[in-house]
Amino acid sequence: MEVESRGLGTAALTVVAGFVASRFLGLVRNMVIGDAFGTSPELDAYFAAFRVPDLIFQLLAGATLGSAFIPTFARYLTKGDPQEAWRLASSVLNLILIFTLVVTLLALIVAPWLVPLTVPGFSTSLKELTVILTRIMLLSSIFFCVSGIITGILNARYHFFFPALAPVLYNLSIIGGAVFLSGPLGVRGLAVGVVVGSFLHLIIQVPGLSKVGMRYRLEARLSHPGVREVGRLMLPRVFGLAAMQTNFLVTTILASTLVSGSLAALSYAWALLMLPVGVFGMAVGTAVFPSLAEQAAAEHLDALKRTLVVTLRLVLFLTIPATVGLALMRNDLVALIFQRGLFAAESTKATSWALLFYSLGLSGYAAVEILSRGFYALHDTRTPVVFAIVGTGIHIVLGLILIRFLDQGGLALSMSVATALEATALWWVLGRRLGGLEERQVVRSVVKTCIASAVMGAILVIFLIALNFRPWVVVMGGVGLGGMAFLAAAHVLSSEETGTLLRRLRPLV
């Protein structure tokens, strides 16, 4: 199937390679930050300062990019109307820039009153530092919003190279801020690195617009039918992303009431979790979404269904064993990556505790990335929003309960449980809408994957007990041994995903 091949073949490999590079540099970034700041109160302020700028980006460009713009833009191109497609792209780009400038200016003004509400447990001096860092990083919202729309334009035209390279430059900039600016500026140097990195994230993608033949117009037509369609699809997504940002905000608020460094530990653990989520969920979802949008626009629902099923099964095949590996090797993994400089053994203990409970939601996070795009391709942004809001409610209730028993681990566990339930609900409803998503085959595949993962886990436990080596030996040996054990067990169980995985990797050989 040509469209599916385009979505899951070379494009997927390009995106995955970019995500791997970005996530690797993200780990290097956090290693450098951990060496310089450990899990200090100042670093808590830095991570908390992301909340407002990230909220602006997610509610404006984030809401527009995947669920609203790409399907609408793809429909104009599929119907052979490139002129109106580019007029749509220009209007959306200019409107997002205008809205972002206005909202960012307002946020700069109200930051001294708004930011302290997100960190009620911080001391007065730490709240003031969080306000300063927030104001610095608010500039990044402007660059990221414009860059996000450009990413959508390039992805819709199956151009993934520059969007995949952009996060690499962003991470390199923050690393530079940590290395060269943390001495004279302290944690403010990291905030400067964020702003410079967001600017590079934008600039590197601009040449891609000429490669896809964009014809830019200096116009912002709210009356354009495509713009109105984007707005209609965007509005529900705004509430969905607001729900997701509420999850992070609740985590920030509750973590600020725990012992100093808890928010930093959660942020380090989240960064580790995002490596497999980014590679197995976000990258694959980003690559396959233009195909899903085209299949939906052409009303090829059988093809769309098959693309979703193949992608979901492969993602679960990869994330379930990754969950087992993360949970079992979490202490050595955190020590290997972060434990140096001011990141002491106590920081390792706090971070690995959070990682244990975050890892339990790995498959759920990745599955949501795939399934939600199925709804967006069908121009349904409301259903994922409903489940996201319900998930936020579950996270809040469970977080308030579990934090009393598990500290920061309780916040991580509540997020994982809420996301797993959200993914299950999305799968069930989407299956009903498409006349089934081969549920029996998916369940059978998951059962085989779980059995193979259990075999892998048993071997890893023996490995960890028998060989108490340095962290790098444990991690490298565990990944190699665990991976071979899992693939061997999956092959014995005749898991179809082993063959699918090899076919996807064949272009790299």
What is the helix fraction of residues, given as a range? over 70%
Instruction: Output the helix-strand order.
Output: HHHHHHHHHHHHHHHHHHH
Question: Which overall shape is indicated by the principal axes computed on the Cα atoms?
Answer: globular
Number of helices: 19
Query: Radius of gyration in whole Å, from Cα?
Result: 22 Å
Q: Beta-strand percentage? A: under 5%
Described by strand count, sense and barrel closure, the largest sheet is: none
Taking all residues together, what is the mean pLDDT? 86
Number of strands: 0
Structural class, judged by helices and strands?
A: mainly alpha
Low-confidence stretches: 1-8
CA distance, first residue to last residue? 22 Å
Notable characteristics:
509 residues, mainly alpha, 19 helices, disordered N terminus
Topology readout:
Elements: H1 2-8, H2 10-37, H3 41-48, H4 51-78, H5 82-114, H6 124-156, H7 161-185, H8 188-203, H9 206-211, H10 225-255, H11 262-297, H12 301-338, H13 345-359, H14 362-377, H15 382-406, H16 408-433, H17 439-466, H18 471-492, H19 496-505
Helix pairs in contact: 1-2, 1-11, 2-7, 2-11, 3-6, 3-11, 4-5, 4-6, 4-10, 4-11, 4-14, 5-6, 6-8, 7-8, 10-15, 10-16, 11-12, 11-13, 11-14, 12-13, 12-14, 12-17, 12-18, 13-16, 14-16, 15-16, 17-18
